[in-house]
Structures are given as C-alpha cells and as structure tokens.
Design a protein that fits this description.
The protein is 35% helix and 31% strand. The protein is an alpha+beta fold. Strands 1-2-3-8 form a four-stranded antiparallel sheet, with no helix packed on it. Strands 6-5-9-10 form a four-stranded antiparallel sheet, with no helix packed on it. α4 crosses α5. The longest helix has 38 residues. The protein is rod-shaped, with a radius of gyration of 31 Å.
Length: 219
C-alpha cells in the first residue's frame, strides 16, 4: 500500500506536516477510496483530537496513539470492503447463472412450467413463450414462461377455445426494459387458470391490452 493511502488517519487528525499534507491532498484528489475514508473518519477524529488515551506514556503525543487507532480502523474497513466486493461478485455470478435464459430451445422449457408444454416464437415480434397446461376439475391451470418482451407495456394472456371463445387468464404490466431482454435476462413466469377445459383449448395468446398479439401458442 502506498504512503498516500496510509496517511488517511494522520490527515484526518491534522497531524501531517505542511509538505506531507499537500502531498496527501494531491493524492486525495485522484483517490475516491481515500476521500471516502476521510469523510468517514473526520467526525470521529474531531471527537478524539486532543483527548489523551488512559495510560499514555508521559511526553508521548496523544495524537500518535489515536492516529494509529484510526489507521487500524481504516485498514479494517478496506479489508471488509474487499470481502464485500468479492462476495458481491460471487453472488452476481450465481444470480446471473440462475436468471440466464434457457438455450436448449422450445422443446426444453424451464422446469418451472409444469404440465403439458407447448412453445412458440412469433417471427414478427420475436416474443417467445412456453405454456404448461394441467387439467383440473374446474378447467385448466395455465403456467406461462415469456421472454423477449420489451417494456413498458401492459399484457394479457388469453385462452382461446376450439369454438373461438376467448377468456382472459391473467394480466400484468411489463416495466422497462422488459423480460428476457438485455438488461433484464430473467423470463417472466406466471400462473393462472381458465374455466375452459383442457381438451377444449385451441391456443393461448399473449396480447397487448387493446393492441396486437405478441405471440400465439397452439396447444
């Protein structure tokens, strides 16, 4: 570690000689880390400046001991920050792996989609969707995995029967930048249901509210 970095405590206590103080201030102008430490240590230094620790040797400047304590605290803070950065990077890698879109293709949708799976990608919008259908006594449980939707936009999932009957399964809002897009790679996975029996379903559509269809998935 350079001398400039180690002078944080002494500078905060006002114990540097004029030449050293100027040299440290030159260093401080280009070192955000030291600037942040000076801002952290200044209030404590103001409280401790001029206070002699109990048991200090006669003739020994009180500031020297206090400065050493401040330096140790600053060093500990730097070490903690390094660990936090390292842990944060590791967590980011783990989250990135968990949130990364599946690349196995439409025949291998994410495991969160349960039931009979059907997938489609709209060639015009580029939106990709997978639905999982589970027959229930009350109708059909529908799970949707959706990606490549750019926000902001308000969407609806529509169940369409073989006779052309349309029922809204669920609705949601997609904030910017979207789902399954650069800047937010995670897919949208939501679940709802329709009273249309599984055997009577023809397809499910993802529509913009009062707008066009983003993707239609035959089932």
């Amino acid at each position: 570690m350079s001398t400039g970095h180690t002078d944080v405590g002494a500078y905060s206590m006002g114990l540097l000689e004029e030449q050293d103080r100027r040299a440290f201030e030159d260093h401080l102008a280009g070192c955000p880390s030291c600037a942040a430490e000076v801002a952290e240590l200044s209030p404590m230094a103001a409280l401790l400046r001029g206070v002699e620790p109990a048991g200090a040797a006669a003739g020994e400047p009180a500031g020297a001991t206090v400065t050493e304590l401040i330096r140790r605290r600053a060093t500990d803070q730097r070490r903690r920050r390094r660990w936090q950065v390292a842990l944060g990077a590791a967590a980011g890698i783990a989250v990135g792996i968990a949130a990364a879109p599946q690349h196995a293709g439409p025949t291998a949708p994410p495991p969160a989609v349960a039931g009979q799976r059907h997938s489609a990608t709209d060639p015009g919008t580029g939106v990709a969707g997978t639905v999982g259908l589970v027959a229930k006594t009350w109708g059909t449980q529908v799970t949707l995995d959706l990606s490549k939707v750019h926000g902001p936009v308000e969407c609806e999932l529509i169940a369409v029967s073989r006779t052309g009957e349309r029922r809204v399964v669920m609705g949601w809002r997609v904030p910017a930048p979207g789902d399954g897009v650069p800047g937010h790679p995670a897919h949208l996975v939501i679940q709802g249901g329709t009273s249309i029996p599984r055997n009577d379903l023809a397809r499910v559509d993802v529509d913009v509210v009062n707008g066009r269809t983003l993707v239609s998935i035959p089932v």
